[in-house]
Amino acid sequence: MPSTHIIPTLDDVAKAAGVSTATVSRCLNTSEKVSERSRLKVMKAVEMLGYTPNFGARAMAAKRTFTIGAIIPTMENAIFARGLQAFQETLYANGYTLLVSSTAYRPDVEAEQIKALIARGADGLLLIGYERDHSIYKYLERRGVPTLIAWAFAQDSALPTIGFDNRASMRALCDKVLDMGHKKIGFISGIIAGNDRASERLQGVKEGMRARGLDPNDMPVCESTYEIENGANAFETIMQGAYTPTVVMCGNDVLAVGAMQRAHEMGLKVPQDVSITGFDDIELARIVSPQLTTVHVPHREMGSRAAEELTRMVEHVSTGVSCQLDSSLRLRGSLRVLD
Amino acid sequence: MPSTHIIPTLDDVAKAAGVSTATVSRCLNTSEKVSERSRLKVMKAVEMLGYTPNFGARAMAAKRTFTIGAIIPTMENAIFARGLQAFQETLYANGYTLLVSSTAYRPDVEAEQIKALIARGADGLLLIGYERDHSIYKYLERRGVPTLIAWAFAQDSALPTIGFDNRASMRALCDKVLDMGHKKIGFISGIIAGNDRASERLQGVKEGMRARGLDPNDMPVCESTYEIENGANAFETIMQGAYTPTVVMCGNDVLAVGAMQRAHEMGLKVPQDVSITGFDDIELARIVSPQLTTVHVPHREMGSRAAEELTRMVEHVSTGVSCQLDSSLRLRGSLRVLD
Description:
Chains A, B: It comes from Pelagimonas varians. Chains A, B: Pfam families: LacI, Peripla_BP_3. Chains A, B: Residues 8-62 form the HTH lacI-type domain. The structure is a homodimer. Chain A is an alpha/beta fold. Chain A has three domains: 10-62, lambda repressor-like DNA-binding domains (434 Repressor (Amino-terminal Domain), Orthogonal Bundle); 67-164 and 299-326, Response regulator (Rossmann fold, 3-Layer(aba) Sandwich); 166-297, Rossmann fold. In chain A, 44% of the residues lie in helices and 14% in strands. Chain A is built from 13 helices and twelve strands. A six-stranded parallel beta sheet of chain A has the order 2-1-3-4-5-11, sandwiched between helices. In chain A, α1 (10-17) crosses α3, α5 (81-93) packs parallel to α13 (299-314) and α8 runs parallel beside α9 (196-211). Chain A is elongated, with a radius of gyration of 25 Å. Residues 1-6 and 55-61 of chain A have low confidence and may be disordered. The interface between A and B is large, with 60 and 61 residues.
């Protein structure tokens, strides 16, 4: 046995098993070419020594580490949770381990994490949304690491995208809101800088207003990080302004739940006094009372399709095919027809 | 420029910068020993080539990868989200990147992920809870990778623990429930096999009952995975049994929110017809109506203390010091005094 602080090497395994290092290597990578007797000796030595093939040796032999990296904006609030869970389950079924890191929506942190995951030997990467500095795309191209974008679909993206059209999805909800007689909309948006999903959703509402002859410049817009408390504060700011909307549309469900809470605290009834809408259809949307009208996004389908396609890219079966998924409206109690 | 699919090496950087590979290595690892002129040349070449020190080279030079791995049971439901966010923020402030993987509460998946993270060069690991196969602890000891346990405190654990006493915390809530006149308790538990947090919480309730002369064997216990829908089903099962409890205590807030939803659907008023309690005090607890009585766990403090201590362990400043944190009760509308 080696001392506890020395990491066992391929040599140590070969010595302990009484075979050559080439046999150990073949055994770990292409075990069908090794006799059963050698294989058992090697596996016993591997287990006894606690040997793990290191990145260099294993990557050289298999050309893969069977590790996929996902870099998401946040692990809080469950916005990415369901899609990521499906992504992981599908990867796992295909023999890959998922490592996740989160950026707190900071582009500089994302850039560091991309480099760290590639340095740790990630076979492929999943990124959220397409808006990032050009130098990152150049870097990914130079390193030749298969990378897929999800949570947004963009026809002209440099990398394959598997997601939905954030603008058209929010436009569909806005059309519905206008159909129901609302003319005065307030909007609580996520932070737009560096977040294509947030900016596309806001554009969707503006498009919808213009199409009905309404001026989007009249609409109060409050930007907020995706936290319940901040959504609540943004709602209060909008409702205390000179322009009182009959509906407050929100960039996601987390903001909308904050808006509903603050409405309640301010003595405003939802939807009698003010309607509120969200985006995402996470579990929260059905827990609040009244339930939240929102845009349903096929998170699980998006996650598992992204995993399938990224696996194909890593295994050189595909160079990356984009796929647009449909969203749909969920009309619930928080939105009412205006009298 | 190299072709896009060839990964640049230290040699490539040295050639592009017109310096020796030793200079490049010194520059990347101990830049104070290199002239400013050489440093700038090297950094320009690194940037141009998209060079990332690979695991082997960098680990050899720095003896660290500045990567910490955390393996958590699930990314869904935000049970671990707030603590993990604080863990990551503190690590990041100390110059470390966090990589997270999740196990879906499967011990076999956890074992694989521990090996994968060590193979990817993790300097240290965070694990949740202390209950796992002895061979994992032996493996971690052999590999000499600093490992810390959080979300549970255990005096006699082989590894340092930073967390709270799950049994005593639930016992305190149970005592309160009994003080309020309840004698018939139903319990919805997480899956107990392999989950020390779940089993300790159930034991806390049983202890509390015994201390008042009540027989814990009378208590209906329903085990459920931590999902809202499953909590709802477990609640219905318990309420339709022959023994009708006046309070249903739940192993966490996610189960409790499911119980509240199903109570509502069954036409039962909370807390008039049945009281419901949770554990964790995640955001959900204050979003439901009535708000949920629960045990508040200092998730943020636990996450940041775990990051501080694990950093000290990785940097050989500490061999790992355990720390017990206090939980506290949050008495809200879902629990009432029995007439």
